[in-house]
Structure formats: C-alpha cells, structure tokens
Amino acid sequence: RSENQSSNQPNTLSERFQARKFDLVCGNAWMLDLTQAILNLGFLAGAFTLGYAADRYGRLVIYLISCFGVGVTGVVVAFAPNFPVFVVFRFLQGVFGKGTWMTCYVIVTEIVGSKQRRIVGIVVQMFFTLGIIILPGIAYFIPNWQGIQLAITLPSFLFLLYYWVVPESPRWLITRKKGDKALKILRSIAKCNGKYLSPNYSEITVTDEEVSNPSFLDLVRTPQMRKCTLILMFAWFTSAVVYQGLVMRLGIIGGNLYIDFFISGVVELPAALLILLTIERFGRRLPFAGSNIVAGVACLVTAFLPEGIPWLRTTVATLGRLGITMAFEIVYLVNSELYPTTLRNFGVSLCSGLCDFGGIIAPFLLFRLAAIWLELPLIIFGVLASVCGGLVMLLPETKGIALPETVDDVEKLGSPYSYKCGRKKKTQVSSSHL
C-alpha cells in the first residue's frame, strides 16, 4: 500500500461510508481524521462535566441521563444532513458516551465487596472486548454506516430500564449523608444474597471531608495524590494512543478488514484471563508495568522486522496488542482503587480524560506519520508504552486494601498502616464496609 494511499484515502469501514456521503476524499481527507478526533474530544469534555456531576449528584442519575443522550445523539448522527451537523452531534455523543462508561464502571466497583471487585472489574472489560468481536459481523451484514450507527446506538435506550434494577451506590449515598437510603439498599442486597444486615449496622459517621464537593485541586494538593494523578494521567494517555493506534493501523496495512478486526478482538480475550491470574498473585503494579513494557517492546521489534517474515511480524504484533489491552484494563481498576469515594468518579473521569486526549491525536499521529514511514508510529507507540511501564512501578500497591474513603487514606497507601484505610468501628456503617 503506497504512502499516498495511506494518507489520502479512508481507512476504516465507517470512514469509507462517511467519505462517500460527505465527499471527504483527496483534499478533504484530513476531515476523516477529524471525525474520530471530535468523538474523543467529546469524551474529554464528558470527563470534566459528567465525571464531576456523578460525584456531586449521584452515579445512577448521571448514568441514565448519559444513556439517553447517547441514544438521541446517535440517531441524529445517523441522519445528519451535512458534515457540520454530523461533527457537532458526534461530539455530543462522545460527551454522553464518557458518562455511561465511567459511571457504569464506578457503580460496579463501589457496589461489590473488595474480594469481588477485581473479578467484576475485569468482566466489565471483557464485554468491551465482546463488542469488538461482534462489530465486524454487524458491519458485514449492514452495508452502510448509518445502519451500523443505529445498530450500536439504539440499544442505549434499553439501559434506561436499569432505573428499576440497579441501585445507587451506597458508598456515594453515605458520603452525601443519605445513610437511611444506603442502609435500605444494603438490606435489599443482603436479602438477595440470602443474608441479613446486622442491627448493629445502624449508626453512620461521615467526616466533613467525605461530604465536600470534588475539585481538581483535591487530586494534586497532597504528595501521594499528586504522584498518583500524574502517573495515571500518563498511563491513560499511553493506553489510548497505543491501543487506538494499533486498531486503526489495521486499515493501512492491507488485508481483509473484517477478518483482521475480528482477530484483533479475539486476541484481547486472553488479556482478561491473564489479569485474573496475575493481579491477585503479584499485585497490581507488576502486571500493570509488565503489560506496558511487553506492548512497548513488541511495537519496537515489529517496526524493524523485515516484511519477508509475516508470521513473525504478526506474532510479535499480537503480543503488543495483548500487552496494551492488559494495560488498558488494569488502569481502570488501579485508578478506581487509588482515589477516595468523594473523588473517585471525578478522579477516574479526569485521569481518563488524558485517554480521550490521546484518542484525539491518535488518528493524526498514525495516518500523518505513516505517510512519512509506515512503521514510524510503531516506534512512537513503543517508546510511550515502555516509559509508562517504568512509571507505574512508582504507584502504591492496592492489593488486599479497602477502598480509601478520604484523601488522608490515600496518603497512607504504601505505608505499614495502609491496611487500616477507611476502617471505623464495627458498630458503625461507613462506605468502607460496603
């Protein structure tokens, strides 16, 4: 595939369909990069707005609003009469999409016990992989981008039924001094599990810090929080650039796009299994660092392997995809475990905003640099992932530690007394017991 072809022609199924409708070819080819970048820009905006709102007004209400928003904006995108309308509503779809992802993950993390948290968190990521696997089939049987858009958007309206199924996070309710509602939910959960809530769990104590409204300064005010925030931001950025870059690279290296995309999704399934086998045995940091380093080395090696041995290039590239997938899934878990309850949704959303920034520049980085040398993006990916692997070793280990409730709890992480984080007297109910 020639350099001109890689830089001036649409490279994905959706882009090819959009190019036909909006005439985004030749001199307008750069606008195709914009369609992906604008979606990630929406994710970034959603991180700042809906991430804050979920900590202020509740996880569930923001999740439901976001699901409705994704559905409405997705329908408008499918029937957009011109490119400006398409771009505006694709941006809005990104905003609401961010709200669904982050609030859903935080609810799941906060509503289960500490022993189940790792398993549930990884299972959530496995459904993301399942979506990647079935997407080529949807694209194959629906031969136009509007149909694909509707097929992946309309199910969002079904999630509004969760209003009657999914409870608000008891942790969040307690931090907002809504202990009675939290206890009601806990009793309901206990009843469903064939257990009961002890009468002793009736007194609720909440510190002033636990009811304060979140702000960015809270994420960088103290040394441990500042270190965690900066490293996690870089980890999110790296995961997005490398992951999205490797996915989009499938469109410029030739081959059957449907089959290649399907295989790339199947490759991600072992990542979840490897995470489950390693994070409880070795903790969070070592698998997190190792997966980034494997991805980085694989990208660098692939860039310099001769094209005459495609089986070796494919094998090494597959290891890279596996590594960055593990890193992407672990960063969700680690991020949620390193922030206190009052800052968790806002902190995860804000840090993952760097993931969205990485997604904004990934199309331009890949397609423009590939026009210079096809393997140049791989070198950039390799350096980023390798550096990230070293940095995450500076994070505190969270294996076997209760979720922190306050900033002070986070500052104690990594100390000999970190196991006490968030714990109060057994006769009291606090979000650390949930």
UniProtKB/TrEMBL annotation:
Keyword field: Cell membrane, Glycoprotein, Ion transport, Membrane, Mitochondrion, Nucleus, Transmembrane, Transmembrane helix, Transport
Main location: membrane
Transmembrane segments: 34-53, 60-80, 86-108, 120-142, 148-166, 230-252, 258-279, 286-305, 311-334, 346-366, 372-395
Domain Major facilitator superfamily (MFS) profile: 1-400
InterPro entries in the record: MFS_dom, MFS_sugar_transport-like, MFS_trans_sf, Sugar_transporter_CS
Pfam families per UniProt: Sugar_tr
Membrane topology category: Multi-pass membrane protein
Catalytic activity from the UniProt record: dopamine(out) = dopamine(in); serotonin(out) = serotonin(in); spermidine(in) = spermidine(out); L-histidyl-L-proline diketopiperazine(in) = L-histidyl-L-proline diketopiperazine(out)
One CC-aspect GO term: basolateral plasma membrane
Biological process terms in GO annotation: dopamine transport; histamine transport; monoatomic ion transport; norepinephrine transport; serotonin transport
Subcellular location, record wording: Apical cell membrane; Basolateral cell membrane; Mitochondrion membrane; Nucleus outer membrane
Coiled-coil spans in chain: none
GO terms assigned for molecular function: monoamine transmembrane transporter activity; neurotransmitter transmembrane transporter activity; quaternary ammonium group transmembrane transporter activity
Family label: Belongs to the major facilitator (TC 2.A.1) superfamily. Organic cation transporter (TC 2.A.1.19) family.
Protein name per UniProt: Solute carrier family 22 member 3
Organism the protein comes from: Neovison vison (American mink)
